[in-house]
Every structure is written in C-alpha cells, then in structure tokens.
Amino acid sequence: MTAANASAETREEPLFTARLTPHRSLSPTGFMVLMLALVSCSFTAGLAFWMIGAWPVVGFFGLDIFLVQLAFRLNYRAARASEEVIVFPDRLTVTRTTPNGRSTEFSVNPYWARLEVERHPEIGVTGLMLTSHGNRFAIAGFLGPRERESFAAALSSAMAAARAPGAT
Predict the structure, then answer these.
(1) 159 in a domain, yes or no?
(2) pLDDT of 12-64, one tens digit each?
(3) 150 and 98 assigned to the same domain
C-alpha cells in the first residue's frame, strides 16, 4: 500500500453514519427544579416533625434527598453510553462506548452482513442484531421500538447501497 492509497482510504466518505445515545427526558435545569422542590418539601415536613418533638424523623428527610440525588447521578452517568454505526462501501463499523468511557469496536463486511430485526406484534421492533459469518452483535439496545424501526430502515438501505455494484 502506498502513501497515496493510505490517505485515500482515510478520506473515504461513509455511506451512513449514526450516533446512538440513550434518551434522558429530564434536563439539568429540570433536575435542579425537581431537587429544589424535594428539598423544600423535605425541609418543611422535617421542620413540622421537629416542632412536634419527633426530631429523629428529620434525618430520614435528609436521607431521601441523598438517595434521589444518587439515583439521578447514576442515571446521568449511564446516559454517557453510546454507539456509533458507520457504513463504508467496504466495511460496517460499530463503536460502543460504555458510561465510563471505554470503547470497543467491531467491523464487518456489509456485503456479508445481515440485519436481523426481532418484532413483537404489539410492541414493534424489540431487537436488532448484526450477523456475519456466525457472529451476532446486538445493536441499538437503548432505543425505543419506534426509533429502532427507523434506525433499522436507514441501516438496511445503507447496507444495500454498500452492496450495490460500484459502491467500492
């Protein structure tokens, strides 16, 4: 391989690119509003219990705030996971990033790869699997059924374009 071929390979344009991330419906501002409301309710209730002499209960109101904060932190940490799917004429690459930042990548030839779509009659698409040479890779696991349906259609057409004559 010459230097010209190597640079041409790196400049190759993808046929399809998708970055999949988990959906989180609560924005950071919404989280702050929720926590302020929780703190104010807990403080008010804690003060009422303190006034009637049940002061040990006040600690539990602080504990619930801590546990809700911890649950949201873990949820937002899990939202850092992602999958990036790129289809080139000669390869299909999936890069998975875990919430702690570790990445794993696998690559298959789109000519030999198949996209298996698992469907439920009432729910819709429940799973997507890339298969090639006896290997199976689950993808788009954190998407909802509608998003999986749309993603499966787009990926299938990109894989068909990669298989088309003259794509390489």
Answers:
(1) yes
(2) 889 999 999 988 888 889 999 999 999 999 999 999 999 999 888 888 988 99
(3) yes
pLDDT of residue 1: 47
What average pLDDT score do residues 145-159 get?
93
| 103 within some domain | yes
Q: SS3 sequence, the chain? A: CCHHHHHHHHCCCCCEEEEECCCCCCCHHHHHHHHHHHHHHHHHHHHHHHHCCCCCHHHHHHHHHHHHHHHHHHHHHHCCCEEEEEECCCCEEEEEECCCCCEEEEEECCCCCEEEEEEECCCEEEEEEEEECCEEEEECCCCCHHHHHHHHHHHHHHHHHHHCCCCC
- On whether the pTM is more than 0.85, the answer is no
Domain extent, residue 157, equals 11-22+81-163
